[in-house]
Structure formats: C-alpha cells, structure tokens
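FAQ: What does the model actually see?

It sees only this:
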Amino acid sequence: MRFLIGEYRHFLEKPAALKERLQCLTSRYGRAVVGRWLAQTDSGAWDELVADLLVTHYDPSYLRATTQNYLHYDEGRRLSLDRIDEAGIGQVAKSLRAE
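And it is asked to produce this:
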C-alpha cells in the first residue's frame, strides 16, 4: 500500500483532482460507493481509500482485462512478493533464475 501511495502522491497533494476522477466512476459503482471514497479522501484516510479502491475497482478491472486478453492466464504461475522494491523484486528474480 505504501508503494501505491508513494506512486500516486500527486493525488494526496491535490485531492480535488482525485475527487474529480472518483466522481467519474459514479455510473459504474453508484453514489454510495463513490461517496465513501470521497469521504475517505476528505478525511485523509489514504490507506483505507487505497485498500477500498484495490478491492472494489482496480483488482476486478485488471482481472477482467487480463482474462480477456491472455487466453492462458489461468495456467500462469503466480508470484508473491514480500516487498515491492528493488530488493524484493531482485529476490523473486533470483529465485526464478535458479529454477
């Protein structure tokens, strides 16, 4: 979560821009869900907002797109990273090379 908050820090610094983008999702998720996201933005509940957006919007959207565009997605190997940084990615790459 810290990684995503760092990558999207510009939205934390300009929450009005984030709220504008969130409001565009009202027709897809409804007023209650978008209202919750707006309230999380207003209160600065960034961890809560990011977790909510991942579960409700991003993960389902990426999964839908991935399964439509990659026919053998279900056959792919799943990797789990303990950390999303240079060391964590390096550790996973090293284990893949060793196999």
